[in-house]
Structure formats: structure tokens, C-alpha cells
Write a structure and sequence with these properties.
With about 425 residues, the chain is an alpha/beta fold. It has two domains: about 5-250, Peroxisomal Thiolase, Chain A, domain 1 (3-Layer(aba) Sandwich); about 260-410, 3-Layer(aba) Sandwich (Peroxisomal Thiolase, Chain A, domain 1), CATH 3.40.47. The protein is built from 13 helices and 14 strands. The mean pLDDT is about 95.
């Protein structure tokens, strides 16, 4: 069968940099940090006391106060982002004739961690009869696409991808496949996460994965820097509206970019550490190039996974060199996490949104806090501030625990 072309017609974001796309994108280009001391719980006994928090977000702008009180924070992000997405795509609502052919496929790594913590405490203190009937429904990760589909009346494919930090890009890959294969005409996709909780911070601290730069949190996320000491946890949501080219053109949509290639692989190596030679990451990137029918010299920008952990940044740099050879030194690379922290299951969604914005706005975001480059991280990481550039193709990477890797290529739309 002939695969259908898949284009992007809408974007939305809620991030530590802002409560909508415009604010988030503006601060990203300005090189501002959204990392700050944690305010949602007592951090006095925690090794890490800061995170990339979404601040000033009012869920009642998108749902009733009653619904907002019942839902976990990641669910309110998902609903809000899905509504902003339709607006950005020029749709007041999904037309009735399109509802059965529109789906929601959203990545989420952990789901409702806060309600899990609260419910376990209540169970131990007050007994099983005091457990809320909303505990399970709002805890499970598939409520991100589930509630979005209810709000939008999207009756097509409905699915969550849970693959740790690669969840968002995996969601985009499979949403792309649904349209390319003719199972849907439109897909709401991306990633969401909100796990800045006592358990979340304690768990990653126990793994020694988080930065403990408590005296200078805004400079704690330092991808590719010699003095990086771990990632910074973030929260938020990034969504894209995908459509078949025919459907988008038929409704006169504003096409922002096209998905031309994607791939996922496994390291088959370790629970949490990437294979140090970057083999799995390199195969994900090479597979995305192969499905796009592109040669490595056609990629003009890379939005890196770039977590600011000692092992990941070196490994990703090695993988990029494996794929692009000497030309790796000529490709501008950005690390969005330097400003937002790591949004876990939401990272690939938000970073894909920013990748498309780079194509549409002809500007590449900077990487901040890279002051003393790791000798093994010697590529062009855009450290001088935002860079004006008209690029045709952007590669976006996400890699996660369990050795899961995902890459997607977005191309400029030329009409």
C-alpha cells in the first residue's frame, strides 16, 4: 500500500517556561531558565530541592473547578494542551464528520504519582474504606489521552505510550503510523508528565540521577558540560496535531511541517544506563534517516535528548558522530532541557513542538549553562544564544530507561 503523507497543523505547550506555546517559546529563545526551588512539598530532607515547575497554571480556564480538583495534574495539563492545540490548528472543535477518524495518542512515563503517594498514606493511616473511588481512574497514565479524547470528542485510536523518557516521541511515531496507514485522518499526540513529588525526587535521588546543585538551581541543568552532576526534573506537556496531507489541504489548514522519518530501537543492554558506544541511539537515528529516504547530510539541526547526566551526554555525542561522521561537527545541536529540566514522558512531546517551531520560525534555540565543555562533548551546541537559521530538516531524539530509543525527523513545509 502507499503510505499517506503526514503533516503538522497545530502545536501547544505547557512548560516550566510558560503556560502556553508563545510564552514557552519566547523564554526558550531568550535562554531563560525555568528551574526554581520546589514549592509543592517540604524538601528539607531531600538531596535535591529544586525542579522545573509549571507556575501560575490555572486549570479552571479549561475545565470546571470540580473537575480540576478531582484530576491529577498531568491530566489537567493534557486537557488544557489538547484544547489549546485545536485553537492553534484553527479548529473550534473537531467536526462531527471527523470525530471517528480523529484519535489521541499521548506519551506519559509515570502517571499520577502524587495521588499514588497520598492514597498509600491514607490507606495506612485510615484503612481501605477511606480510599477514594477516583484513585485508580486518575492515577493510570492512559487518562492523558483518555480525558483528552472525551473533551475533544475524538473517537478514533486512543492510546498511551509508556516508555520512560522516550514516551513522547514514541507516541508521535505511532500516531504518525495511524495516519500513514489510513487508520485515522487526524491525531492529537505528544507527551505529558507531572511527577515533581516527594517520591519522585527521592526515587531519582536514590539512583544518583538528579543534580544536587541546590545553591544555584538555574544553572544546574548543564548538558554537555564537564561539571554536570545529573538531570533536573521538570513537568509539562507538549502536543502536536497530525493530519494526513489530503485532510489538511481539504480543510485549508496552515501546515507547519511534515513528519518524514522515524524509528525506535532497543539497546538490550542495561535497566538504566545507555550502551556506552551509543549503538542503540545511532540505530534509531539511522533508521529515521532510512524511513525518510534521506542521507545524513540532509539533517541540518538536531534537538538532542541531552539530559545533563554524566553518561547520557557523552553517549549521545558518540552516537551522533557514528551517524554523521565528520559532518557531526557542522550540525547545530540544541539542548532544551538546559532551560526546562527533564520532563520525562513529556520531554519528547515538548521538544518535538520546539523542533517544529525552529523550522517554522527559522531560529534555533540556544543551550545554556555549557561553560566548560566535556572534552568528549565537542560538537556545536549553540552556546552563544539563539541562532537565525533556515533549515530544511530537524532530527529530534529521546532515549529512556530500559534502553529504549526514539528519533523523528521533521521537515520544513514548502507548500
Amino acid at each position: 500500500m502507499t503510505l499517506r503523507r503526514v503533516v503538522i497543523t497545530g502545536l501547544s505547550a505547557i512548560t516550566p517556561l510558560g503556560n502556553d506555546l508563545a510564552a514557552s517559546w519566547g523564554r526558550l529563545l531568550a535562554g531563560e531558565s525555568g528551574v526554581s526551588p520546589i514549592t509543592s512539598f517540604d524538601t528539607s530532607e531531600h538531596l535535591t530541592k529544586f525542579a522545573g515547575q509549571v507556575t501560575g497554571f490555572d486549570p479552571t480556564l479549561y475545565m470546571s473547578a470540580k473537575q480540576a480538583r478531582r484530576l491529577e495534574r498531568f491530566c489537567t495539563f493534557s486537557i488544557a494542551c489538547s484544547k489549546m492545540l485545536l485553537q492553534h490548528a484553527g479548529l473550534e472543535k473537531i467536526p462531527e464528520q471527523d470525530q471517528e477518524h480523529t484519535g489521541c495518542l499521548i506519551g506519559c512515563g509515570l502517571g499520577g504519582l502524587k495521588i499514588f503517594e497520598d492514597t498509600v498514606l491514607k490507606l495506612e493511616r485510615e484503612g481501605p474504606r477511606r480510599v477514594s473511588p477516583f484513585c485508580i481512574p486518575v492515577y493510570i497514565a492512559n487518562m492523558a489521552p483518555g480525558l483528552a479524547s472525551i473533551e475533544l470528542q475524538a473517537k478514533g485510536p486512543n492510546l498511551v505510550t509508556t516508555s520512560a523518557c522516550a514516551s513522547g516521541i514514541h507516541a508521535i511515531i505511532y500516531a504518525y503510523s495511524d495516519i500513514a496507514m489510513g487508520r485515522a485522518d487526524m491525531m492529537v499526540t505528544g507527551g505529558v508528565e507531572s511527577t515533581i513529588t516527594s517520591l519522585g525526587i527521592a526515587g531519582f535521588n536514590a539512583m544518583r540521577a538528579l543534580s544536587t546543585r541546590n545553591d544555584d538551581p538555574q544553572r544546574a541543568s548543564r548538558p554537555f558540560d564537564k561539571n554536570r552532576d545529573g538531570f533536573v526534573m521538570g513537568e509539562g506537556c507538549g502536543m502536536l496535531l497530525l493530519e494526513s496531507l489530503e485532510h489538511a489541504q481539504a480543510r485549508g489548514a496552515n501546515i507547519l511541517a511534515e513528519i518524514v522519518g522515524c524509528n525506535s530501537t532497543a539497546d538490550a543492554y542495561h535497566m538504566t544506563a545507555p550502551a556506552e558506544d551509543g549503538d542503540g541511539m545511532a540505530r534509531a537515528m539511522n533508521g529515521a534517516l532510512r524511513t525518510a529516504g534521506m542521507s545524513p547530510d540532509q539533517v541540518e539541526h538536531i534537538n538532542a535528548h541531552a539530559t545533563s547526566t554524566p553518561l547520557n551526554d557523552v553517549t549521545e555525542t558518540r552516537a551522533i558522530k557514528k551517524v554523521f561522521g565528520k559532518r557531526a561537527y557542522d550540525i547545530p545541536i540544541t539542548a532544551n532541557k538546559s532551560m526546562m529540566g527533564h520532563l520525562l514522558g513529556g520531554a519528547g512531546g515538548v521538544e518535538s513542538v520546539f523542533s517544529v517551531m525552529s523550522l517554522a520560525e527559522e531560529v534555533l534555540p540556544p543551550t545554556i549553562n555549557l561553560e566548560t565543555p566535556d572534552p568528549e562533548c565537542d560538537l556545536d551546541y549553540i552556546t552563544e544564544g539563539k541562532r537565525k537559521a533556515t533549515v530544511a530538516n530537524v532530527l529530534c531524539n529521546s532515549f529512556g530507561f530500559g534502553g529504549t530509543n526514539a528519533s523523528v525527523i521533521f521537515s520544513r513545509w514548502n507548500g
